[in-house]
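WARN no homologs supplied; continuing
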Amino acid sequence: TPGYDIDQLVIGSGSNFDFANLTVVMNFLGTTSPTDFANSGGLDMDNFMRSANGDTETGLSTVFADGQRWTDVLADATVIAWSNDAAYAGVTLEFTGSSEGLTAIVRDVPEPSTWGLMLLGLCLLAALAQRRQRFARRF
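OK structure emitted
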């Protein structure tokens, strides 16, 4: 993909493969934005896993059995997203499958401070509701 360097697993034609115990680690180096990478189409699994037949390489999904999709092949695999940049350290990937390939949707995981602020807001709302109830009982 233009602008990004990626590693590829190339499997020769006629090979059998089983990804049930596979762990895929997507390491976003430097300040690479996982969201920008996903929007560029870079997270299509056919970019990372290829089939080779002589000098010709195609996306691995081209050699799947009829009706088989990436979501079937990687059903039991583990996919981990990792970034050295703290801004993207909490990224998770949600995969959606199609007959053409598997693409990832980047979901940013809220930082603990965001959860703390939300909890504080909920506590304040509960306190206000309780105060209103006490005030309503007086009248």
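Residues 4 and 37 are 8 Å apart (CA to CA).
OK
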